[in-house]
Write a structure and sequence with these properties.
There is one protein chain. This protein is mostly helical. The longest helix is centred in the last third of the chain and has 27 residues. The two termini are about 30 Å apart.
Length: about 270
């Protein structure tokens, strides 16, 4: 028994589990979770969609909670922007989930259109935040400035769909995705690529692990958007694949925030 393990034993603490064992258990549980979701998507797509979106919403709220409460531990606004924007993303994603075809929880007379509109609105907010992230690595503004900015944007987006309906149609029954929806997805991909380039140029301002996690998160977000340009049915496997990639993207951004704002400072 090494000295650290001996000290833990003498202090009445159990020896820590080997790191490789924890990683193996994590990999097994993750594979089981994703495999279970895939099986659910084959037999009950609506249940699959609800579970995936609730996981995404939970992580988005966690990103906001950690970013807001650790804003004094970092010397830039990048993760604060990510946190505040993802609170808005969580709200709009919740509306997207409630309006999804088959849920019948919102006054949705447009079939899959309203849910798709909410999805695009959330992606507009997310793409803006991802672009702002690398640009804010050396900047500090009053926290209230960000609260107002990232609080007003999601409200305006939601209001444009259900308050004063001026948001363009995104899905037409019998036809599929509209040109606006597909063009928007490609625009988000372009925004993600731009964010990757900007992040690479400013990578010296980030821990290497954080840089890799954020970059991979953005890359998966781009991949997910590409899949969302291809489906013709909201219950298709292509749509499910896009949701898997988006879920993984949010998880990686959450991990980057945990590493940057908690693990490294503490």
């Amino acid at each position: 028994m090494n000295s650290s393990a001996t000290a833990r034993f003498e202090n009445g603490l159990q020896p820590a589990a080997p790191r490789w064992l924890l990683r193996l258990l994590t990999a097994i549980l993750t594979a089981a979770f994703l495999g279970g979701l895939f099986l659910i998507s084959l037999y009950n797509f609506l249940l699959f969609h609800v579970v995936v979106e609730l996981c995404t919403i939970g992580m988005a709220i966690a990103i906001f909670t950690v970013a807001w409460n650790t804003r004094h531990l970092v010397d830039n606004d990048a993760f604060l922007i990510l946190g505040l924007s993802f609170l808005g993303v969580a709200l709009i994603t919740l509306l997207h989930t409630l309006a999804y075809k088959g849920m019948a929880l919102l006054a949705n007379t447009g079939g899959a259109n309203m849910a798709t509109q909410f999805w695009i609105a959330a992606r507009f907010l997310e793409a803006t935040a991802l672009l702002a992230f690398p640009l804010s690595l050396q900047r500090r503004y009053p926290a209230m400035f960000h609260v107002v900015l990232w609080g007003v944007l999601p409200v305006l987006l939601v209001f444009s769909i259900i308050g004063w309906p001026i948001f363009p149609d995104c899905f037409i029954e019998g036809t599929g995705l509209t040109t606006f929806k597909i063009a928007s997805e490609y625009l988000f991909c372009l925004a993600g690529l731009t964010a990757l380039v900007l992040l690479h140029r400013r990578r010296s301002h980030l821990d290497r692990t954080v840089y890799l996690l954020v970059s991979l998160g953005i890359a998966l977000s781009i991949g997910g958007e590409l899949f969302f340009t291809l489906y013709t049915s909201v219950t298709s496997l292509v749509n499910a694949t896009g949701h898997f990639m988006h879920l993984a993207s949010v998880f990686l951004l959450y991990q980057a925030l945990i590493h940057s704002s908690l693990k490294r400072p503490l």
